[in-house]
Amino acid sequence: xxxxxxxxxxxxxxxxxxxxxxxxxxxxxxxxxxxxxxxxxxxxxxxxxxxxxxxxxxxxxxxxxxxxxxxxxxxxxxxxxxxxxxxxxxxxxxxxxxxxxxxxxxxxxxxxxxxxxxxxxxxxxxxxxxxxxxxxxxxxxxxxxxxxxxxxxxxxxxxxxxxxxxxxxxxxxxxxxxxxxxxxxxxxxxxxxxxxxxxxxxxxxxxxxxxxxxxxxxxxxxxxxxxxxxxxxxxxxxxxxxxxxxxxxxxxxxxxxxxxxxxxxxxxxxxxxxxxxxxxxxxxxxxxxxxxxxxxxxxxxxxxxxxxxxxxxxxxxxxxxxxxxxxxxxxxxxxxxxxxxxxxxxxxxxxxxxxxxxxxxxxxxxxxxxxxxxxxxxxxxxxxxxxxx
Length: 389
Hints:
Elements: E1 12-16, H1 20-23, H2 26-32, E2 35-40, E3 54-56, H3 62-69, E4 74-77, H4 84-92, H5 101-108, H6 110-119, E5 127-130, H7 133-140, E6 148-152, E7 162-165, H8 172-175, E8 185-189, E9 195-203, E10 209-211, E11 215-220, E12 223-229, H9 236-253, E13 257-266, E14 269-276, H10 286-289, H11 294-302, E15 316-323, H12 333-340, E16 345-348, E17 358-366, H13 369-384
Parallel strand pairs: 1-2, 1-4, 2-3
Antiparallel strand pairs: 5-8, 6-7, 6-8, 9-10, 9-11, 9-13, 11-12, 12-15, 13-14, 15-17, 16-17
């Protein structure tokens, strides 16, 4: 049974995708009095478990998208995988798609993104498109260490679609035969960086923007494991440059909603690596550690509401992802974690446990970054089953 209608002045936000990002959008939507609808692939998707208004269907089917959008005031996204041409068709129908297709493509296609950022003089790693094995070998020959990073232009995430190469022989399966690569590829220099950074920015249709503190993210096998907010010991000029880049990109692309800008911190400054035009794993700390969470901020932005303060509530927050491990029954582990650390915040995504899969995260906030790190790591390890005390 469909939920009863809201009063006319309260909008319905449709989210394409029903993963954990859509799931974590539910609490701020409730507080704001906004109804969410989700387009889920299965009834058991993470957000479909907690949001009652669910349509099960294929986001790659234009007809399904049109039917879903017909009952929403604005459409936004849990992921970037909706075909660009489908979004353009929805916009031609008069649907409010936020972020719009012209902006979102920069989070979908790394070649489009790099070309646009280069034209805007935003610093990025040196790169080139790859159409043949000769293209790849020629680029590798120009690198200082004889290696490069090869990426698929679309579809890569959590370390997928990224490969370290020393010669085109390392990527023959991607390069294809005489017809060229099956998917567009790009190659970039292997950057010498001290750490990876991320900064969130939100922008509304009216042009208001808000930028969050720059955070450090720790990756393992291409998957984000830990986030430190703010980035410990970051040089003020690097932090300001990262925030300035995020604000300039959001303005230049006319982003509507939340955008994450991932960067490399180098001796010479910061380089933009990736864009995600949606709430992002490196912003989960904001749920408990900021005045306005990234999820509330995204909803405010896509509805053109005044944006909230992005300020931190405590000097430091540490977020550690809980990845699937040896512990199949997670719930009993709550007793230990909550009793040991009553200030700990646990967020689980309602996903079956699989090794290496993101199934939740924990956050702690306070003053002592060393203490926070120890506490957050302990809880995540206990929930994974790595430790039992």
